[in-house]
Structure formats: structure tokens, C-alpha cells
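name: query_chain
kind: protein
chains: 1
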Amino acid sequence: MLLLALAFGYYLWQRGDLRVIGIEPPAPTAAPTALPIGSGEIQPFFTTPYLVYPDQKEFRRPAPFELALIADIDGAQRNIDMVTFEYNLDSVAQALLRAAERGVQVRLALDLENLEKPEMAEWAGLMEDARIPIAWENSSAFLHSKFLIIDDRLVWMGSWNTTENDTYRNNNNLLRISVPEIVANYRAEFQQMFEFRDFNNDKEALTPHNWVEMGGWRIENYFTPEERPIVQMVEYIGQAQQSVKFMAFSYTSDGISNAMIARREAGIPVQGVFENRNINGTGSRFQAMADAGIDVLPDGNCYTMHHKVIIIDDRMVITGSYNFTGRAADVNDENVIILDNPAMSPRTSPSSSASTIRRVTPCAVGSKGWVEPAGLPAGSTHPTF
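structure:
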């Protein structure tokens, strides 16, 4: 069952973007044979606690999320369907090849534009050499979704691309979901991409379960551009009574930022972290939000802060592949999950506003990818549920 979406959201906010000097990263757990696949469970994973700066390939160690994902692929018995925008991570390539060799049906949907990058062309070539079929998105839009379905029982989704950078350098989050209705949603989305070769605005709104209620929780699930999750996002931001927090790789949406500015003007605290290299980009909402009195910071990762997360009243989490941009809303293939439990109470641990989070020199040798926030024990990692 779903447990503590609040913990997920609060953890994302506290640990998403900065690092501390001179502390070794936590040792990854031993590779599991496979995590159990329950029915109605969501497990969050994060790259951040295991990032080490500067990244050096010879010193990389697989993080728990990578081990768990590979174990799930190795445990597949019937089929694996994967969608990713970028792709060059060898551990996933080898796991997919092993699956195909033992007779598992493996199918991919990939963005063709990224074949211009040699390492991604090499990765895709391994798949094609193994006769793994690929549906290519070939337009000016992006196949920007990232998800993987295993045996029609389990889906992985989030901000994470199947790349070395997103695994070993960038701040990302993933959800491992075994809620049958949500898995069915991703299966329907993949079917349009792979079987009908429909991408972007050629797709239809065929999601069978846009919302699921179970055990006091409400889960909403949307795909773009055929559905319009920005409508729900703006509505929920406008209903915030205690706080709005966000982390954004790319943020140019007037609709979302105006909703946050309106909450700030209503006296609701709004805090956010922007990916540093995008704060002065065309259409960036960083300065407009700062001018409106919103507590915003550029992130401190010398590589990339890749989250796309909004946390409302410490009880609702919005996450997925969806950057807060017009292209995400209108053109790209994207997916969004909204987790909410109205019965959850706000966390009582000390607040840590964007302006008071410790800033340190990024990418110093031996730096770890996060700061220990107040109220959490040193060395603590993400919650497991």
C-alpha cells in the first residue's frame, strides 16, 4: 500500500540539490535478487544521496535504485517495455540483453534525435543487434517520458533518463509502482507509442485510470500532450493553505508561476530551487518569482539538478518527466503522477527555507551529493515503503 507520500515529498525538498564537503558517500547495499512486487505499493528512490563530486568513472558504485532496477529487469519473466528520452547506461543495456536472450519480450520507444550523440547511437545499436524492436519518435518534439514496465505488474517512472549522467551526476527521483491501475495506464500509453507509432499530438487521451483512490490516498496520473495535467497543477497550487515547495530543471510556464505568485501574495510561503544553468534562459520565471518575493535559489550541483517536483502543504507531491514549460504541456510526450492524502498532517521537523540551506563549493573532491538537514540523523537515507 501507499505509505507517507509526505515523507517522499519532504525528502525530495530537503535533499534535492546541494552537497557537503569531505564526507564519503554511503556504501550501496548489496545487489538484491529482486525486491518483492506487491499490489498497491509505491517506493521512492533518489540518486542524490549516492552522488560523489567530481564524478570519476573508475570510482563509481551502483546506487540502490540502480541495483533494484537491474534486479527487476533480471527478474522479468514475460515482457519489458521501456520509454526513455536519453540512453547510454550500460548496466541497463546489458540487463535488457540478458532478458532478451532468455526469451523475454523486450520493446523500446526512444527519441530519434539523440542518435546524433555517438554514445547513444552505440547503446541503441546494441539493442538493434539483439533484434530488440524500437519505435522511434522522429519529430521536432521530444519523446521526453521516462518509464519502464515489467511483466505488466510493475512500472518505474520519474525524472531519470537511462544515462550515466542521470545515474551518477544529476539529482533525480524515481518511483517503483505496483498499483495495477497505474501500471495499466502506462501500458496504454506505451501501446500508442509502440504498436500504433503515435507520439506527441497524434496520441489520444486513452488513459484508463486518471485517478485511483485507495486507503485514504488519491493517485492521479496523466500523459501529455493528449491530457492537460497543468490544469490540475495550477488548481492544486491555488488551493495551497500552508506551503508550496518546488524543484525545477526548466521553468518557463506562466500559468504555474502565476499560481505560485498568487499564493505568495496571499501570504502562503513559496520556496523553490531552479537548475542554475536555466535561471537566465529564455522565458525563465526565476527573476519574476524572485521579484514577487518568492524564496528561490539556483541549485548547487555542478552537473544538473534534474527534478521536476512540486510539494503542496507537505501532503501532496507532483512528480514525473514534466518540466514546467509550454513544450511539456503542448508538444512533448510526458507523464505526471500526483500523490495526495488529505489526512496527512504537516511535518513538524524544523523548516529549511531555500535561503537558509547551506551553500558550499560545488564539486569539490570527495563531496557528497546532499546536506544533512536539521532534524534528520547523520547518514540517514531515503524512506523505504
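note: The chain is about 25% helix and 20% strand.
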